[in-house]
Automatic annotation (TrEMBL):
Species lineage: Eukaryota, Fungi, Dikarya, Ascomycota, Pezizomycotina
Organism: Penicillium chermesinum
Cofactor(s) demanded: Mg(2+)
Record-level Gene Ontology MF annotations: metal ion binding; phosphatase activity
PANTHER family attached to this UniProt entry: 6-PHOSPHOGLUCONATE PHOSPHATASE, HEXITOL PHOSPHATASE B
InterPro entries: Beta-PGM-like (IPR051600), HAD-like_sf (IPR036412), HAD-SF_hydro_IA (IPR006439), HAD_2 (IPR041492), HAD_sf (IPR023214), PGP-like_dom2 (IPR023198)
Keyword Lipid metabolism among record annotations: no
UniProt name for this protein: HAD superfamily hydrolase
Length: 253
């Protein structure tokens, strides 16, 4: 049976209901970029979420450049990244809320002192810290235990690249076999799975039971070990993972 000592939490729509707020700002900038290149297509925040959920702005802009066959010069690209970060942080500081039940469960996990906790996100570090501070979760995570694919790595990357999970494992001195990741998106789950972690697929931020089931099925197909619909199920999900038979543990890593 695995001996779990570390929990890595994704942030956006896993701990904090932030994706919709973030993608509102992303859509404004994406449309500005498309217009500057003479491209007629336009995006709403919800369309961007559908196409790019789990990616950070760098990853999203890379995908748009490939889709529409244009190139942003490095300085222009970095300028848009900074503008997006500022816009998103302003939205988050004004409106962000925790995922339902997340704060209550974090309080229990933190008080029990059974696991060490970290945040592992694709989003920029400033944005992640602004998110968890806004909803009162920063007290559960040391600031040096918040890892960002956009800010902690050189060069920056985005999930589903496993680099940020591998980086976090190295920094906290843990093995993948003793670590569980909680993820809500395909990009995030793939990143953790490719790094060899156990994965809880959190689907509670999706709007309807139908969407929750659809996403749960997709993440399970990718290799997530168990689906969590509500944060109140966290303890039972951990119990399931910690009781996996040895042969199943080996085949999942």
């Amino acid at each position: 049976m695995p001996q779990i000592t570390e929990i890595f939490f994704d942030c956006d729509n896993t701990l904090v209901l932030s994706e919709e707020l973030a993608f509102e700002a992303c859509a404004e900038l994406a449309n500005e970029i498309l217009e500057s290149r003479g491209i007629a297509d336009r995006y709403t925040g919800s369309q961007l979420i559908k196409d790019f959920v789990g990616q950070n702005f760098r990853g999203m802009m890379g995908s748009l450049q490939k889709k529409y066959n244009f190139t942003l010069e490095k300085d222009e690209f970095n300028g848009y990244v900074k503008k997006e970060e500022d816009k998103v942080i302003a939205n988050l500081e004004a409106k962000a809320k925790p995922c339902v039940g997340a704060n209550e469960e974090l309080e229990k996990i933190f008080a029990a002192k059974k696991y060490h906790l970290a945040v592992v996100s694709s989003s920029a570090l400033r944005r992640v810290i602004a998110s968890i501070k806004k909803v009162g979760q920063d007290k559960y995570f040391d600031e040096n235990m918040v890892f960002s694919a956009a800010s902690s790595l050189d060069p920056p990357t985005s999930k589903p690249d496993p680099a940020i999970y591998l980086h976090a494992l190295e920094k906290v001195g843990k093995k993948a076999s003793e670590t569980v990741a909680v993820e809500d998106s395909k990009s995030g789950a793939l990143s953790a799975i490719r790094a060899g972690l156990f994965v809880i697929a959190y689907v509670g931020a999706y709007d309807t039971p139908e969407l929750q089931k659809e996403m749960g099925d997709k993440l399970t197909e990718l290799g997530a070990h168990i689906v969590m619909t509500n944060w109140s199920e966290f303890e039972s999900c951990m119990d399931y993972i910690e009781k996996l038979p040895a042969k199943e543990v080996q085949s999942s890593l």
